[in-house]
Amino acid sequence: MPTMHSAISPAVTAEHPQNKWYKHLYVQVLIAVAIGILLGHFYPNAAQAMKPLGDNFLKLVKLMVAPLIFCTVVHGIASMRDIKAVGRLGGKALIYFEVMTTLALAIGLLVVNIMKPGVGMHVDPATLDASSIAAYTKAAHEQTVVGYLSHIIPHTVIGAFAEGDLLQVLFISVIFAFALQMLGEKGKPMLDVIDSAANTFFNMVRIVMYVSPLGAFGAIAFTIGKYGIGSLASYGQLLATYYLTAVLFVVIVLGAVCRLAGFSLFRFLRYIREELLIVLGTSSSESALPRLMAKLERLGCDKSAVGLVVPSGYSFNLDGSCINMTVLAIFIAQATDTYLSLGHQITLLAILLLTSKGAASVSGGAFIVLAATLGTIPGFPVAGLVLVLGVYRFISEGGAIVNVIGNGIATIVVAKWEKVLDEETLHRELQQGPDFN
To answer: What does the buried/exposed string (b/e) look like for 48-85 if buried means 16 or more CB atoms within 10 Å of the residue's CB?
Structure first.
């Protein structure tokens, strides 16, 4: 039976140097994004009509995410002889997630207090029309800790896959994997079927990626056409603060983690450049999830580590979204002249440590979680979210990119921590670069 690697990555290493530059996926996506930006700027009405291209590409990817996670998680866990190792791996992943998200929140608070992008705006919250964020604040009001925990358990098995909820699919996958592992040799035929299904879904991903430049073009054209490049200039200091924070987190914090784990951050970024460009174009980290999982396995991470860490990281390790929430919260406070003491800011950080874990469970998750969190701070003008609604799309793109980078690194680190990483393969692959497009 062919392995997952062979199913998604044809052996073209020897031919790689001879490939035409325009045949590389990252080049095609980059060109598509550039054309989309130009169309959005000069022909905004036509650009907004391109929205279905981005939406339908994301639908194609999400179509395969749930079954792909199910197959990968089940095969990874059910294949392990030492079932206690699954618990250790999951526990270590959660510890890592908590440390990284805490650092992301803290760095966000530090940089926004130094840069002060909202100081001097003197916006009166009473003059703001909160109708444009009514849907977000209503959803935020409905988000409770008990509700979030209850949401992890789906009403039906089919419902979890139909809705594409990653946490629910992960929950079902883990239970199914343990049940299959308990069957022993009797479960081997089922395990083989699941492995074949995983290979098939990865091949489906490979087919869908041929149209990813169209998806990136449609999504970025719509964003620029609807919100305009002018909004980037008017919120230039806020965007500069956010992206500076994101770069500092990736280069300093994640760079240090990579060095401690024995590999280069920048070689890893080069290795996943196609996925990062797809995320940039679509503003969705889910669009890169299938290919990210494939590349992490190719880098030498065991299936069990990839299957557990990546899907759970998409819910519990949203570093970019954490930076996003702290920067926006303090920006709104500065813009509306709302005083937040050091104690208030530490309280905000502590609350976000809990509420940020639910950011992936609903559409527009980070914005809804931010609204819910700000509502818990006495006297905070939640209506101030109106100030950042127009530029939020550009900020969420950066957050999605950081989320993908953070979860890729988390998988390698946890796999090494649990001794299920082939380090020789890791260094060879990072040295050579990806050879499948």
So the answer is: bebbebbeebbebbbebbbbbbbbbbbbbbbbbeeeeb
Q: Which residue has the tokens 């199913």?
A: 7
Identify whether the C-beta of residue 73 lies closer than 8 Å to the C-beta of residue 307. yes
Q: Which two tokens stand for residue 73?
A: 């998680």
Give the pLDDT confidence of 83-140 residue by residue, as tens digits.
777 788 889 999 999 999 999 999 999 999 999 998 888 888 877 766 656 555 555 5
**Tokens standing for 165?**
């909820």
Contact 174, 73 (CB under 8 A): yes
Q: Concatenated DSSP letters for 126-144?
A: GG--GGGGHHHHHHHHH--
Q: Which residues, given as ranges, of the chain have pLDDT below 70?
A: 1-19, 21-22, 129-151, 230-234, 357-366, 435-437
Please answer whether residues 292 and 275 qualify as being in contact, where contact means their C-beta atoms are separated by less than 8 angstroms: yes
Burial label, 344 (beta-carbon count in 10 A; 0-12, 13-18, 19+): middle
Q: In terms of C-beta density within 10 A (0-12 exposed, 13-18 middle, 19 or more buried), how is residue 364 classed? A: middle
User: Would you state the pLDDT for residue 307?
Assistant: 86
Paired strand residues for 334? none
Residue 14's SS3 state is coil
User: Can you state the percent helix, strand and coil of the chain, rounding each to 5?
Assistant: 80, 0, 20
